[in-house]
Amino acid sequence: MKILLAEDNDLLRKSLSFYLQTEGFDVDQFSNGKEALEAIKSKPYTIILTDINMPGISGMEITQYVRTKLLSNIPIIIFTSSNIEQTELDSFDIGANEFIPKPVSPAVLLVRMKRLISKSSDN
Questions:
Q1: Domain that includes residue 72, residue range
Q2: Which residue of 16, 45, 52, 83 has the fewest C-beta atoms within 10 A of its own C-beta?
Q3: Boundaries of each Response regulatory domain copy (predicted)?
């Protein structure tokens, strides 16, 4: 399964990517939102994992674009270091399926990913 991982923190992006690859996923990783969005426009992904705050284009903008311009129901998980409740509510309002606060637990992320992928393949 093809995953898009957009995260500007190099250590987190590389460690999550490595973990997901060991779990059998094919991961395309991006350090900025602009490159991630270009990839989303050109390749099919099973799920999108994105940080909110990134250079170029934010994870919120990516989510909004996928939902309103591409009209795609691809599962999207947003993570952020913001602990502001409104940020989480805004993420769901624009179409995110999950919101995970940082630090991200790879094991928790994997469980949530599998649940969303399973749910989307049932539809």
A1: 2-104
A2: 83
A3: 2-117
Count of other CB atoms within 10 angstroms of residue 63: 24
Q: Give the angle 117-50-21 at the CA atoms, nearest 5°.
A: 60
- Rounded distance between C-alpha atoms, residue 104 and residue 75, angstroms: 17
**Three-state DSSP state, 17:** helix
Work out how many domains the chain is built from and give that number.
1
Reference 9, options 102, 111, 107; nearest CA is: 102
Rounded to the nearest 5°, which phi and psi values hold at 77?
-115, 125
**Structural domain contains residue 115:** no
Q: Are 7 and 51 in contact (CB under 8 A)?
A: yes
Q: What pLDDT digit, counting tens, does each position of 45-55 carry?
A: 999 999 998 88
